[in-house]
Amino acid sequence: VEYYLDNIQRESHLNAFLEVWADEARSQADAVDAKLAAGTAGKLAGMVVGLKDVLAYKDHALQSSSHILDGFKSLFTGTAVQRLLEEDAIFIGRQNCDEFAMGASNETSYFGPVRNALDPDRVSGGSSGGSAVAVQADLCLASIGSDTGGSVRQPAAFCGIVGFKPTYSRISRYGLIAYASSFDQIGTLTRSVEDAALLLEVMAGPDEFDSTVSKEPVPAYSELLTPAPHYRIGYIRDCLERPGLNPEIKAATEEALEVLRGQGHVVEAVDFPYLDYIVPSYYILTTAEASSNLSRFDGVKYGYRAPDATDLESLYKKTRSQGFGPEVQRRILLGTFVLSADYYDAYYTKAQRVRRLIKEKTDELLRQYDFLVLPTTPTTAFHIGDVEQDTLAMYLADIFTVQASLAGIPAISVPSGTDSEGMPIGLQILSGAFREEHLLAFSKLVT
Ligand code: GLN
């Protein structure tokens, strides 16, 4: 704990943590020491963990890096966080992220961007940017983030670490601030696949507080990490021919596929005809869900309240205009538009249908192949400010991560070398739903 606290202080310019729980972490560590001595310590004893600012932890500030939740403290601890505590994880602090997890560069945070530790002029990725940099810069051993359309995988790729999103519904969302409820999933940012497996094992499983959570049994993931000798691997031909894909990332992906072929696995190109529809359907559906989820922040129940309101309507308008940043407002407006009576069928219903097609085709491929391999991102970490004003470019950069989110399947990003400027490249692997133990075991072959 002292080691990480020193590092956090020294690297405070990275802006990874919004709050550090130094004294609490020290007393948690003392308690864990006592349990270790007594032989009663849990599976995570000694693991120093950071929490993205979207996870409820009783009596601790929680604000999704938004002005609108200023001063809000959580009244309860979410299920995943509670399970970590019960296995003796030590919480070191609350991590910066994009506002309401909306973004891919951590630049929409009310508290400013997180800096990439390899080059502080570059972004961390997002939305779990603080969580990724905290692991990258050795400010904690592991971070818990959330992934709606790539938010643990993409920053993990930009920072050269492992980012893992389990199957939708594998981990309870109770205590996770909602962005788009049919996509949101808690995920991990770690240095190793082993740590990802262990954390999943602790957090996963049924929960009476989340009716959508799966009742599938939870395997002992951390004990099932031996890869099989032969796998069938598919890669989507068009992904590698995508305009805008950095040639060095393309080369790194092809090299990884070649290595796998050399190890005796079957590696084949496959066609996926819906690549162009992935990003539009993702943004129609997630903004629709967000516009509904974020309606609760009205100045009455939580956090910030505009001081100069004169009646209820002006209270709502002023609080939300002042409390939400521009990206969140854009998404609420977009979502409200696609759900409006005149446009519902043209946009929302159609996007739901497209989601179904994407899911069915992806599931079909994952019956033919054990895994799909593709890049995590089209570029490496870009410079702070470079893409921020170009909303469409920022959305389109999610092209490789949102397929798994639309399909609800697990996906992991593992480090796969660097570009010529030394910035990390991520390789992404997708598997069928609830096949995490196979996905994690396989990932070890490419890390
Ligand atoms: N970049 C994507 C978005 O802005 C993903 C965010 C996320 O997974 N929370 O929606």
Report a brief summary of the structure.
The chain is of the alpha/beta class. The chain is built from 15 helices and 13 strands. The protein has one domain: Amidase signature (AS) enzymes (Alpha-Beta Complex).
Would you mind describing this structure in some detail?
One of its GO terms (cellular component) is glutamyl-tRNA(Gln) amidotransferase complex. The strands form two sheets. The protein has an eleven-stranded mixed β-sheet, sandwiched between helices. The protein has a two-stranded antiparallel ribbon with strand order 4-5. It has a single domain (1-447), classed as Alpha-Beta Complex (Amidase signature (AS) enzymes), CATH 3.90.1300.10. The protein is globular and about 70 Å long. The model has no long low-confidence stretch (mean pLDDT 97). Strand 4 and strand 5 form a beta hairpin. The relative contact order is 0.14. It is α/β, with parallel strands linked by helices. It is 38% helix and 15% strand. The chain is built from 15 helices and 13 strands.
